[in-house]
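Forwarding these from the shared drive since the link keeps breaking.
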Amino acid sequence: MRRLLIAALILSAAAWPAAAADNDLDRPLFWPTVRYGWPERLSVGGAFQPRIPGIFNRLILDGTIGRGGYKVSAGYGAFGGDLMAGTAILATVMRTSSNPRNAQPHQTFLGVEGQIMAANFSLKAGPAFRIGGPTQSADRFRINFSVGLGF
């Protein structure tokens, strides 16, 4: 229950600023990251923030691979500026490997995550629902959570 509350707070805190940001941040095009989370455990990856004019100017594409699984995300937000800060809302697809933390192995989840970052430290959290896997699992709903350095 505590993780659900934390995820809801991060999602609500990230939603409004990500959509309301009108100013153009001085932002990197590619941002490497190291994260620790549930269920991916220690993971590495990166985010791509293309500079496309118009509505897609705030597009973020993200991916990580870790000991417990891998995740790809696409969302809306922006990170950068003098404080290396920002917010985003991301749609995620995650696949657990044979050694996930607090999840069944070899399962696929679809979810939404909010992300908040300041000074290159970020928090990501959000709900995810099981959409597939080779075996049946009682793990139909979970809260993904991770802490990262970089993005």
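-- next protein --
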Amino acid sequence: MKKITKATFKAFVKKHREELCVRGSRSSDGGFAKAKPSTLDQPRHTRGITGVWLVGGGRDFFAKYEDDLYTGISVGNCCGCFIVAIRK
């Protein structure tokens, strides 16, 4: 299995921007929601998506995510964790 890196994450987000869903560690219902544009002026950290926050400096940890309905990438760092995914 290919290692998931920040470059893999960025490519996945760019390729699937229109169909991307996000699930954060602070989701009230624990489910995925359609990705919304971020209102923060931090594109390097948010990739322009609400619920996404990368800290950089090798402190983001990436893993493959897959369940019955979604496939994507799980990200963890000192700010929490989130998943970006698309429906299968």
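The chain has a mean pLDDT of 91. Residues 28 and 51 are 13 Å apart (CA to CA).

- D.
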